[in-house]
Design a protein that fits this description.
The protein is of the alpha+beta class and about 120 residues long. It has one domain (about 10-115). It is built from three helices and three strands, in the order H-E-H-H-E-E. The protein has helices spanning about 10-60, 70-75, 90-95; strands at about 65-70, 100-105, 110-115. A three-stranded antiparallel sheet has the order 1-2-3. Strand 2 and strand 3 (about 110-115) form a beta hairpin. It is rod-shaped, with a radius of gyration of 25 Å.
Amino acid sequence: MRENGFSLVELLAVLVLLSVIILVAFPSILGAIKKSDSEITEATKELLIANAKTYVNDTQPSGATGCVLVRTLIDNNYTEAPIPNASEETSKNIEDHWGIRYEFNASTGKYTNFSVSETGC
């Protein structure tokens, strides 16, 4: 006489099937998370460059070439802290260590070649 319910073999088969699905899906989920982190970083870099352009145009004399720290942008209210869309640890690293380099193009009379340096100036 058969009782209602699942046998041990059926339960083990379901567990094995779920394990295989998890093993296949887990790496793709991690890849998606890493990709979204890099997209946040690119967006953060673009934001910081835009804020640095404003800061440099407002405060630097013509002809100056140099670097502005993210901490300087924050202290002078050109960007917000914590950095948007970043984890607390990443935001703190950006605030304390990143810088934006720039050059003055004498032929155009404008600042150009803004680039983010993750190791400061």
